[in-house]
Amino acid sequence: MPATSMEELVSLCKRRGFIFQGSEIYGGLQGFYDYGPLGVELKNNIKAAWWRSNVYERDDMEGLDASIIMHRMVLRHSGHEATFSDPMIDNKKNNKRYRLDHLLKDQKADVQAKVAEIMGEDADNFAALVAALNAKPAQASAAFKDAGVRDPFSGEVGDWTDPKPFNMMFKTTIGPVADDESYGYLRPETAQGIFTNFKNVVDSTSRRLPFGIAQIGKAFRNEITPRNFIFRVRELEQMEIEFFVVPGTDEEWHEHWLEKRLKWWEDQGVPRSKIEILDVPKEDLAHYSKRTYDLMYDYPTLGHEEIEGIANRSDYDLGSHTKSQSELGLVAKVEENADSIAKLTIPHPETNKPVVPFVIEPSAGVDRAMLAVLSEAFTKETLDNGNERIVLKLRPHLAPIKVAVIPLARNKDEITSVAKKIKAELQGLGLGRVLYEDSGNIGKAYRRHDEVGTPFCVTVDFDTVGKGEDAALTDTVTVRDRDTLAQERVKISELAGWIQAKLR
Ligand code: GAP
């Protein structure tokens, strides 16, 4: 059974070295997390699985790694300066600040209903209600006060300000200058690095439509209320594809990517039955979107929340960057010079005329993927002896440690030297992390490796070195399967092949 509460996951992640609070020794920094020794392995394995499926196993994809800090003009013309904001509202009594929709969601149903009634909206249409509150700020603050909206921090009814938009981009100074122009933004989505490199990739690879550009990288959002562990953070990582298609074929490709992505999540151990597909209502669409499917995973404690967005961005981004270059005089005027090489166009595959392609964008968060994968793998079992064990039933390709090699007696040279040799041989196969584990207590070692999801523990004992009771077991080891707990005796000479086959 997957994890039933976020607390269980948080506790395991800290205890076993998956995830730590950022800047913890100075009290922590809200919305920032550090990935520990096992966290970094799991994260890298998730990213590698995504890259393998979307780049290596396709013929229509290129990869990219663009810089994080971007020219302010990119984010101006992408629409982020004007629209990448969330509504915030302050409680004048204690100066606490909240994201308006989060604050409302946290209220009891009768309070929400009262706010809706005052605003003349339907309480069941949350998106429309939030839109109305944003559109009428003075009425919104009055409605919050009259309905008795409570401050989650103090528990008391707040004295609420009018809501106002808060832009979530992190701005930073570039170079040792102090003028008003020398600033850039930490990208709020990796996507813009793909759009700004569209022409470079097309020119250097001779790609024709349809094709995509994939990128994995950090993005930054100054979230008003980061919360729920790594679900909503200020420094996040995204796995994004911008898939460029002939206008008119975009809707078909949108469906293609929806299927592909659901299949990928399934392959990582996140079943379809746990993901709801939300066809995002028009009023909730991002400024660039023609249509978006949000994949809503059923997180422990949180319920259904977004894990990935699959958007039809139409020709919005390439179109507006082309227009802005033209406006800035960086390229010849678009209309007058239809063949300008600096325009973000590509020849139509049939007419050869330059066209601004439409874009389908599957965009998944690595941090949210970690949460979902951990949550699905987390299992509590009662053993035959009545003891409880926690086991992470991760798919083997995601497991942070692939094999632990354990000498049954850590002070017997003949055993430890064989165990070390086996570890070295397995390490040389490039499977990922292979550990030599000589903590001394085999039961504890098994428990630890169950909790971190190690698929196989290999034990070297007296029989292995010909000093046990059964001579037939000489040169064999015991391999314990994490999930079934079955123990199989395998010849050392066949062990590497055995493990490789199982991990595959
Ligand atoms: N380029 C499109 C884009 O950025 P988005 O829906 O804002 O779209 C895509 O983000 C994905 O990035 C989300 O589905 C989520 O998995 C992840 N994500 C977004 N904001 C996040 C945050 N503050 N913390 C963690 N993950 C986040």
Could you explain the architecture of this structure?
With 504 residues, the protein is of the alpha+beta class. It has 16 helices and 24 strands. The chain has helices spanning 6-15, 37-56, 72-77, 80-83, 100-105, 109-119, 126-135, 137-147, 191-196, 198-205, 250-267, 316-327, 366-377, 413-427, 442-452, 492-503, and strands at residues 19-21, 33-35, 61-64, 69-71, 85-91, 96-99, 164-167, 170-173, 183-186, 211-220, 235-245, 275-279, 291-299, 303-314, 346-347, 354-355, 358-365, 378-382, 388-392, 401-407, 433-436, 456-460, 476-481, 487-491. The strands form 7 sheets. Strands 3-10-11-17-14-13-12 form a 7-stranded mixed β-sheet. The longest helix is centred in the N-terminal third of the chain and has 20 residues, at 37-56. It is globular and about 85 Å long. It starts with 5 loop residues before the first helix and ends with a helix. The protein binds glycyl-adenosine-5'-phosphate. The site of glycyl-adenosine-5'-phosphate (GAP) has 19 residues, from β11, β14, β17 and α13.
